[in-house]
Specification:
Helix content of chain B: 25-40%
Number of strands of chain A: 16
CATH topology of the largest domain in chain A: Rossmann fold
Shape of chain B: globular
Strand order of the largest sheet of chain A: 5-11-10-16-13-14
Number of domains of chain A: 5
CATH class of the largest domain in chain A: Alpha Beta
Shape of chain A: globular
Distance between the termini of chain A: 73 Å
Oligomer: heterodimer
Bound molecules: flavin mononucleotide, iron/sulfur cluster, FE2/S2 (inorganic) cluster
Structural class of chain A: alpha/beta
Largest interface: A-B, 64 and 70 residues
Structural class of chain B: alpha/beta
Distance between the termini of chain B: 45 Å
CATH architecture of the largest domain in chain B: 3-Layer(aba) Sandwich
CATH topology of the largest domain in chain B: Rossmann fold
Strand order of the largest sheet of chain B: 2-1-5-3-4
Helix content of chain A: 40-55%
Strand content of chain A: 5-15%
């Protein structure tokens, strides 16, 4: 049959990675062969390739260097490191050096905000960069030292766990301690236990996990899938990285538990390509669990419960963290958010019921099964029980991951991390909100200040406009481009911010920002566009003095005739 | 994820596809369950703007977002809704109207739309939406992003300046073998629709024409087939689709007859085509009546070259493309109490702004150095101290001086111009017919 000869579309990303890794880019021949294997037109292929930042259609060098351009990196010396890379390699950013050895590219946050500036070279991590270090790295590469020998060991930087034995995540991990508990439990009981713990999603939307699992269990369609969202693209967030690096087995057990609860046999861990350096570790851990009989056929010794886990590598896109975009990406398509006609639990991966959960959610679920919902309920507050992993970065002496109990005040966390003269704090990354020290008494919990995981501290001497411009560039770059308000709106607002920077803004420009931002919130298709202007609008309210000063005389009085005719003056002979 | 919604779906047993009653803007409407909301509204003469929505595509594309309405109290795209019993829809609230209008304005600001030079004008969905929503000026700055036109395909030409990324072509246009001919490429603000040359070559002429029809804008053109319909027969050459609304607007009061104080007008043409001035004269004999109440000072109409007094109102046609334009405009600002930008060129640059995507140097080289019509041996770019200096791009008037009012149109309808002026000068009742606003 025709259909059986072509490869399944869901293998497309893996296939493209093979070509990309083989030649450093995807050649015309590869396109030809790919288009035949998958029986799709070349433009459709081009559409997929051009969507992902890490796929190239032109030679990109033997060493592909991705330097993180997030705001924390910017404040920690990005510009100098960037120049150092250009100087040492002879390449310009966005291009190859003349010898075709080094390719330099900027990239959005790579989840190493606690050790910036950081870069990936052939997807190996290099942290705490400075001019000298860059020189040494490039010199060694030129001498033929393999990248994997040069790269840095990524620190976990676990800075805080709750006192007593209250920790949920960062306590010793013994493989199987959690999943073997399933032996005496029915799937419904597992869901009930999760419900009892009041666990809600840790990926940012806070949807009750037990409810999601229960609704998926009720679906009649088969097979069902468990997807672990390890895309962690929100700048400033790196808690999932630490969880997976410190205890890779826990998240895998969490996936199996979810599978048992909803009746799925397959789990897929969607790992962002920025975390490729953890891939081997996760695979080895999975192998270990298989060998221990905790995964695979009759997993954890439960008769009739088969559960397999595979890894899917992303290819560089923030919006793919949105669950429906992730499903598209797993199906080998452009990572565009789907229209909200069905929820993933109704029609998800390949149109089948799918649970998408964040890494932290699945780890928490595993611990709840291991320790009982009672343990979880003992920590945190009554309405927000449990602990939460917070990735702290920016102007503080102790950047890293903090396992805090819900109910901790902002000022307590600032003290714990030894923040330097904190002034502007970004909660939950660019799509979250910013607060000032007037909010230092606010409480981190679902009821007050809900935090997706990132906590970026900036001191008084940082330029708020620089922060906002960095975020605007991020959203402009990472919008999937499907819907008008987000695709055009982010671009337009970036221009507005540039106008403020030039000192040309009038009061009406601030009104515009509010109104246009609101339009994007109302009309965008997915969470990216809906949240992209949150911070911007909030900043106007939170730091009015700052913007008062920025206000200029208005564009009309700043038109500079000499500047506008400068180009023409070249023709004066 | 909304738990309540999902739960509801579970609990309620699937009703047979029967009749449902819903409310649109307070009006009770009966429809078949599961019908598309845009469709239901249309059948009941309620206009919900839409661009990407296309009856045959399911699930709907949901890309353009111009159909945003309040559904059960929450903003949501109407094209994505299947009607349900007791559904409450608000289409025409001030907020929703403004949001929809803003999205259309965003499309005009994002692309490079020069309607008077566009093959699709009059048949264009985007332009049609602009008129229906009364878009007179984009609140957003024009981005003037440089985009190429793709002439490579065999039959089709892709005009990237006009594509609104609605996905229609991506989903619908396929070869006999079922291969996609179009796909979106890149992402973010770099997103473009790409065409597969190999697959395109397999399309028949009919299929290519169907693709052109399918595209709501003038982005997909078929060689030699673009101007198929004469003026008057084009798709949107008819009356407004919003019958009731239009009727409301048609109530135009006669101009107040009271004796009027004579006012002084000045007019000016900068980087424009004089079309707006020609249009002003198009009120024919009305012009004689006009002269009883106004006096023209500096203006091309009477050829007065210098201001002789302060004027009540100044009408400016055209944007600024050279230093002389800037100086003249600044002088007008000083000499006129009210300054009005008249026509697209003065509002945002208009046709002359077609050069804004291209560096000045390239423009001049093309015009003076590489042009085949140049007299041989005279390959120089004119430059003399007496000549005005050319600006790096064409500026709308409001980027140079403060502009008080804008009269849209290319050119604006004469009735529209004079109604606006009378309103500004004597507070006459101001109401514009759809036909006066729809200038193309
Ligand atoms: C633009 C955008 C980016 C997102 N990125 C992530 C992400 O990187 N990781 C994640 O777990 N969830 C992310 N989410 C949330 C997911 O859509 C989804 O809600 C989550 O994976 C559900 O898991 P949870 O219930 O366990 O939180 C993102 C959402 C949006 C709108
Ligand atoms: S809001 Fe942005 S990211 Fe989401 S669908 Fe629209 S364009 Fe894509
Ligand atoms: S595509 Fe439509 S809106 Fe754009 S220039 Fe052509 S007619 Fe005007
Ligand atoms: S070319 Fe036309 S049909 Fe295709 S996406 Fe653009 S506007 Fe839509
Ligand atoms: S018509 Fe509804 S989103 Fe385009």
């Amino acid at each position: 049959m025709e259909a059986s000869r072509k490869r399944a579309r869901s293998e497309l990303l893996d296939c493209l990675w093979e070509y990309q890794n083989q030649h450093g880019y995807i050649r015309d021949e590869d396109m030809e062969s790919c288009s035949r294997q998958f029986d799709i037109s070349k433009i459709e292929l081009e559409g997929v390739i051009s969507f992902y930042h890490f796929f190239h259609r032109r030679p990109s060098g033997r060493f592909i260097i991705y330097l993180n351009n997030s705001i924390v990196s910017e404040f920690k010396g990005f510009q100098r490191v960037r120049e150092a890379f250009e100087r040492e390699t002879g390449a310009r950013f966005g291009e190859l050096d003349p010898g075709g050895v080094f390719g330099l590219f900027e990239t959005s946050c790579i989840g190493l905000s606690d050790q910036e500036p950081a870069a990936l070279i052939n997807f190996h991590p290099f942290t705490n960069l400075n001019t000298l270090k860059v020189r040494q790295i490039i010199a060694s590469l030129k001498q033929g030292v393999p990248v994997d020998e040069l790269c840095d060991e990524v620190e976990d930087n676990i800075r805080y766990i709750p006192p007593g034995k209250r920790a949920v995540f960062f306590r010793e991990y013994f493989p199987g301690n959690s999943i073997t508990k399933l032996g005496g439990m029915k799937p419904e009981e597992v869901i009930e236990e999760i419900n009892r713990s009041k666990l809600s999603g840790r990926g940012g939307a806070f949807f009750p996990t037990g409810l999601k699992w229960g609704l998926c269990r009720q679906q009649e369609a088969k097979p069902k899938y468990i997807v672990c969202n390890a895309d962690e693209g929100e700048p400033g967030t790196f808690k999932d990285r630490v969880l997976m690096n410190a205890m890779p087995g826990l998240v895998l057990e969490g996936m199996a538990i979810a599978g048992y609860a909803v009746g799925a046999r397959e789990g897929i861990l969607y790992l962002r390509a920025e975390y490729s350096w953890m891939k081997e570790k996760l695979e080895k851990e999975a192998e270990r669990l298989y060998r221990m009989g905790l995964l695979g056929k009759n997993a954890a010794g439960i008769e009739g419960f088969d559960f397999d886990i595979r890894l899917q590598l992303g290819a560089g896109s923030y919006v793919v963290g949105e669950e429906t975009a992730m499903l598209n990406s797993m199906e080998g398509k452009r990572g565009e958010a789907r229209v909200k006609q069905y929820y993933p639990i109704e029609r998800g991966f390949l149109g089948k019921p799918t649970v998408v959960n964040n890494v932290e959610t699945l780890c928490a679920a595993a611990r709840i099964i291991e320790l009982g919902a009672g343990h979880f309920l003992k920590t945190g507050t009554v309405t927000s029980p449990g602990t939460k992993l917070i990735s702290v970065s920016g102007d503080c002496h102790q950047p890293g991951v903090y396992e805090i109990e819900y109910g901790m005040k902002v000022e307590e966390l600032l003290k714990l991390c030894h923040a330097d003269d904190p002034y502007y704090i970004q909660i939950s990354g660019p799509s979250g909100e910013c607060i000032s020290m007037a909010d230092k008494g606010r409480v981190l919990s679902k009821d007050d200040l809900s935090c997706g995981g990132a906590f970026m501290v900036f001191s008084k001497h940082r330029d708020i406009l620089q922060i906002l411009l960095n975020f605007a560039a991020f959203f402009k770059e990472e919008s999937c481009g499907v819907c008008t308000p987000c695709r055009a709106g982010n671009f337009i607002l970036q221009r507005k911010l540039e106008k403020i920077k030039l000192g040309l803004a009038q009061r009406s420009d601030y009104d515009d920002i509010r109104q246009w931002g609101h339009i994007m919130q109302t009309a965008s298709r997915c969470g990216l566009g809906k949240t992209a202007t949150n911070t911007l609008i909030k900043a106007l309210d939170t730091f009015p003095d700052f913007f008062e000063v920025q206000q200029g005389e208005g564009l009309t009085r700043k038109f500079d005739l000499n500047k506008a005719t400068e180009e023409y003056e070249k023709f004066k002979s | 994820m909304k738990s309540s919604k999902v739960k509801q779906k579970r609990k309620e047993p699937q009703k047979p596809k029967g009749e449902v009653t819903l409310k649109i803007d307070g009006r009770e409407i009966k429809a078949r369950e599961g019908q598309n909301l845009v469709q239901v509204a249309r059948e009941n003469d309620i206009f919900i703007p839409s661009l990407c929505y296309y009856e045959h595509i399911d699930p709907p594309l949901g890309t353009c977002r111009v159909c945003i309405c309040e559904v059960n109290g929450k903003p949501a795209p109407a094209c994505m809704q299947k009607v349900k019993d007791n559904m409450e829809v608000q289409v025409n609230t001030p907020e929703m109207e403004d949001t929809r209008k803003a999205i259309v304005e965003m499309m005009f600001a994002e692309g490079n739309h020069f309607c008077p030079a566009c093959e699709k004008s009059g048949n264009c969905g985007l332009q049609h939406m602009g008129y229906e929503m009364g878009v007179s000026i984009s609140r957003f700055p024009h981005l003037f992003k440089d985009r190429l036109i793709d002439f490579h395909p065999k039959r089709i030409i892709i005009e990237h300046n006009r594509c609104v990324k609605c996905h229609r072509c991506v989903e619908e246009v396929r070869t006999q073998e079922g291969k996609k001919v179009f796909s979106l490429c890149n992402r973010g603000n770099e997103t473009v629709v790409g065409i597969d040359y190999e697959q395109e070559a397999k399309l028949t002429q009919e299929e290519a024409l169907a693709a052109m029809q399918l595209c709501p804008t003038g982005a997909i053109l078929v060689r030699g087939m673009s101007m198929a319909k004469p003026f008057g027969d084009r798709r949107f050459d008819k009356k407004s689709v919003q019958k009731e609304e239009n009727a409301k607007k048609a109530v135009v009061e006669a101009a107040a007859k009271a004796a009027k104080e004579k006012k002084v007008i000045a007019t000016l043409s900068l980087a424009g085509c004089f079309g707006c001035h020609m249009s002003m004269l198009d009120i024919d004999l009305g012009f004689i009546d006009l002269l009883e109440v106004v006096e023209f000072n500096k203006s091309p109409i009477n050829d007065i070259k210098e201001f002789t007094r302060q004027c009540h109102i100044g009408l400016v046609e055209g944007g600024c493309c050279n230093s002389e334009n800037v100086e003249t405009l600044r002088e007008f600002r000083k000499k006129c109490d009210i300054l009005v930008a008249m026509g697209e060129c003065s509002i945002w640059g208009g046709l002359p702004a077609m050069r804004n995507m291209i560096p000045l140097e390239e423009c001049l080289e093309e015009a003076y150095l590489n042009s085949i019509t140049t007299v041989s041996g005279e390959h120089i770019v004119p430059y003399h101290e007496d000549l005005p200096k050319i600006l790096d791009r064409v500026y709308p008037c409001n980027e140079i001086v403060k502009i008080d009012y804008f009269i849209p149109g290319c050119p604006p309808n004469p009735e529209h111009i004079w109604k606006a002026v009378k309103n500004l000068l004597w507070g006459d009742h101001y109401s514009i017919l759809y036909s006066e606003f729809k200038y193309d």
